[in-house]
Amino acid sequence: xxxxxxxxxxxxxxxxxxxxxxxxxxVINGYNKMSSNSQIKTFESEVKNDEKSLIEKLKxxxxxxxxxxxxxxxxxxxxxxxxxESIDLSQYGLKNNMFGYIEVPKINVKLGIYLGASxxxxxxxxxxxxxxxxxxxxxxxxxxxxxxxxNGRFGDMFRNIDKLEIEDKVYVTNPWEKLEYEVSExxxxxxxxxxxxxxxxxxxxxxxxxxxxxxxxxxxxxxYCERVGE
Length: 230
Prior knowledge:
The protein contains 3 helices and 8 strands, in the order ααββαββββββ. By secondary structure, it is an alpha+beta fold. The longest helix has 48 residues, at 2-49.
């Protein structure tokens, strides 16, 4: 009888452990989605309540930044190594270092875009790689946006980036407008092959980046997106 009770207790514990392992990723992913949505709402509130003159100044400074890196050439490293901020958003009334957000309906992604690939920023959402273009919707620009491939700690993020196909839609909202892009090419590279993420002449691009394959950082998965609906 005692052995039977022990067997029941062990079985119950194993069932509980199994349920926890099954539910944990879903709970974490749900929490991260709520957190991301909350941060995006804060960003939208800041933009709505900000002085129009500050947003116009930010817009002009972003155009100037993009033109400068295009004319001077880009000095870019692996996106998961480069932490610097391109612009100090606090000067324009945006306090949380969020420049906007990205939406990828095909893989159910909606993430804030933070300036600089710091550990803190990458734990919160997607990041803009310094010395690549800011997403302003202009020619001769390529905004590189990186995010984790997802795990139990960060939620899905770009977990399913390899599910994207040609002509899938990608939307980026900056402080003054929403931009529409389509996937034009997908491939993977070594972390050192940075020439693949540079500006391409006369194109308005967004490039999505994450580790590849899932669970490894051996390669970087690349998704080129080109502007549509201008």
